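Input.
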Amino acid sequence: MLRPLGTHAHGGPLRAEVMLLPRRCWGPWLAGRRPRCSCQSPAGFSGKDRRSSRVREKPPWRVLFFGTDHFAREALRALHAARDNKEEKLIEKLEVVTVPSISPKGLPVKQYAIQSQLPVYEWPDMGSGEYDVGVVASFGRLLSEALILKFPYGILNVHPSCLPRWRGPAPIIHTVLHGDTVTGVTIMQVRPKRFDVGPILKQETVAVPPKSTSKELEAVLSKLGANMLISVLKNLPESLNNGRPQPAEGVTYAPKVSAGTSCVKWEEQTSEQVLRLHLAIGDIVPLQTLWMENTVKLLDLVEVNNSILADPKVMGQTVTPGSVVYHRPSQMLLVHCKDGWIGVRSIMHKKTLTATDFYNGYLHAWYQKNSHAYPSQCKFQTLRLPTKTQQKTKLLLCSALSS
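Output.
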């Protein structure tokens, strides 16, 4: 799955468009011949290397892996284990390409490659070796036609959704955000010019665990995708020959997440939608709102059960979207959404506060100061981020998604 920089496999961000060679250039490998093309070789790959390469018809394969984040790291781990398996010779050579990072630790794929003593290159450096197949997971850089031509068996893409559902840069986030009960992983062959439309080589489905976050779901799908990748590589020529087109029905898109997505819209979103939003991105970027013109972050959101809703002190409130009350028995803040209440157990307002701390330090003081005000006037308001703030937060979001 290669797409615009700014989202991770579980969400996405960190992928880029791929410009690939015309389809007619892909056929000859089936007969054991190197495809011919007039495309210029990419940096690091000489024309001599390309002409002298001999296509293998069976394992062990020489693999160049492109990836960045935790989802990609699991696929790399599986490839590395296969290379070290002396009983079943599946991988002969494994090298890694990743991208520079603002994190001092480096991205997860680079960390793993260094720890495992795998040759690792930082884009655009790709070394000068010969390979049979490329594998891509959460890479986020433009790949040229000449680079794709380097691989006689093309490039395999590990995509965390059941294509054609959730084509795009943030499939896991949108799976959680829309409350899907079933998802999965697709191993597909990359095709030129359009995203996530190539033939499906293998696809498996799994149930989405109730109330799972995007990061929790990513952990499940990354292991599934890694196992599926190894299965495809064991029968690579056959898998490519048996690839099936994606269905025309059921296509949905998973656009990248912007900074504004984290701002709760109390007048527009239901309590279920707010909870799903928290599960989808809360581990990466906490949901945000306004309290008395100050930005606060909502750290721990939960569903409000019927016993709390039946409390006379809650039922008797005159409320509007964003109204905040403290429910002492459950030690939660209750915030009214478009259709009902959502529970908040902790927030960040200058520092991390429990709901009880926030009540004692801010809500109680507000009620004392505004003793004649209606409870509906004590409220969170929708935060509208300025453009510059959105851009800055987007950079932080990209970094968090791949760290």
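The radius of gyration is 25 Å.
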